[in-house]
Specification:
15 strands, five-stranded mixed beta sheet, alpha/beta, elongated, five-stranded antiparallel beta sheet, 527 residues
Amino acid sequence: MAPSLRTVVRRTGLRPLVGTLDSVVRWVAVSELEDPTPYLEGDELLLTTGMRLEGDFSQYVARLVARGVAGLALGVGLSHQEVPPALLEAATAAGLPLLEVPRETPFIAIGKAVSDLLAAEQYDEITRAFAAQGRLTRAALRTEGPYAVIDRLAKEVGGWAALLDEHGEVRHSTRAAKAEAAARELARLRGEHGVWRGGAANGRPPASLALSGPDEHVVLQPLGGGPRPRGFFVVGASRAFSPVTQTVINAAGSLLTLAVEQGGAQREAERRVRSAVLGLLLDGGKGEGRAGAACVERARAVLAPLGGRLPEEPVVVLAVAGDALDAVEPHAFTARLPEAARLPDTARVPEAVRLPDAASLGSPVVVLVAAAEAEKVAALAEGTVGMSAPSAYGELPGALDQARRAFESGRDGLVRFADLAGQGLLTLLDPAAAQAFAAALLAPLTRYGSRADLIESLRAYIGSNGHWDAAAQRLGIHRHTLRYRMKRVTELLGRDLDDPGVRAELWIALAATSSACPPDSSRSSPS
C-alpha cells in the first residue's frame, strides 16, 4: 500500500496548513502550469512555487480536487514569501490538503523521499507475500493436503475459501463460505455440454473469474494443467484484493494444482490396478470350480489395500465410453478393458462378422455393479451404455461379451443385451462386416450370368428348412426345377447344403443381404 500524506510529512519536514493527512501518495509531480490536471492521474502530491498563481485560487484548487490529487505543497521564498491567504481560503473550502515547503527543502528531496517510501512499501509487500507463500506451502505438506491449503488461504485473505471438484461440487469450504452460490455461478458460466460462456478460447475456462459484487469480492480459478479443469477453488472477502493478496491467491492455486495433478497420477495408477484385477476376473471366468473362486478371492485381496471392493453376485457388466469414466468411477468398480482381453470363442466366428477387439474399440470402460444398482449407475454415464444380463463371476467373460455387443449396437442411451438379443441374431453383428461376409460367400452366385434366380431359390429352400415341395410352392415353380437349381448352387459354392453349419452361414449371408437391400414383396426372407 502507498504511504499516506502523514508519513510523507514526517519524512520530509513539510508543514501542513489545512486539510487531513489521510490520503495516500502514489507519486510526486512538479508543475507551474495554471492547469496541470491533464498531466496527472490522481493520488499525486503536487509541488509548485506558484509563479503563475495569483488573485482567485478557487478554480485552480477545484480542478485539483476533481482530479483527485493527494495534496498541494507550495514552495515559499520564491514567487511567494508566504502562502497566500486566498489559497488557504480556497483549499479550506474545497477540502484540499495544503502544505508549505520551506525554502531550504529542495523539491527533488521530497520526490526521493516518496520514492524511497514506495520502494519500502513494495519490499514489505513482497516480504509479506513470501511469508504467506511459506505458510501455504507448510499447509500443503500436512496430511489434510488441499483442505489445509484452503483453510490457510482463507486466513491470509481475511475472508473465506472453498474447493470444488471438476463438476462444481463443493468438496471443502471454510466457515461462512459462500461456496454454493459460487458453484451455481460456475454452472451458469459453464453452460450446457460444458461449453464455457464469455468467449473462452477453445472451449477452455478462463484462467481466473472475478465474481465480485458491491459488498463481496470473489475470485474463482480452475485447477489442473490440461485443457479440462480437474477442479476449482474460490476465495472471497469483503474488501478488494490487493496485489499482495492476488499473489497469495495465485500461489495457493499453484499448490492446489500440484496436489490435484499428483492425485491424478495416483488415480491413474489405481486404474491400472483395477484393469489388472479385471483381467484376473476374466481369467477366473475361464476356469471352473475352485480355480475360478480362487481368482475372485485374489482380486478382492488386490483391491482391499486401495479401499476398493467387488460387488456381490449377481453382477451386471456395463460397457461405457472412455469419457464417462470420471462420472461413473466414484460409484462402482470401473476398469479400462485390458488390451489382451478378447471376446470368448471368436475363433469359431467367421472373421468377417467378428466384433472388433479391445484395442480397436478404443478401450471402453467396463463397470461391474450389483444387479440392484445397475440402472442407477448406468444413468450416470452419457452416450451409449451396454448392459449385460445378471451373472456370477464365473460367467463374467460371457457377460462382458454381452455388454460390449450392446455397446457396439450403435444406439444411444441404455442398451440392454436382453432386449437386443430378442430382435434377432443380425442385431448382434456389425452391419458392415456382415454384409461384407455375405458378399464374399454369395459371390459365385451373383457372378453367374443372369441367373439371379439362384439366390432367390436358395433363399426359399433354406427358408423352408430344406423341404422341396414347400420351397417350390413359395417360388411358384416345379420341384424338379428347384432341384436342378440347388444342384447348380451346390456346384458353384462348393458346399454341401445338407450340412447344418453351411446352411447357418448361408442363412446369415442371405439375411444380411436382405437387411442391406430389402427385397420386393415377391421375395421371402429366411425365417
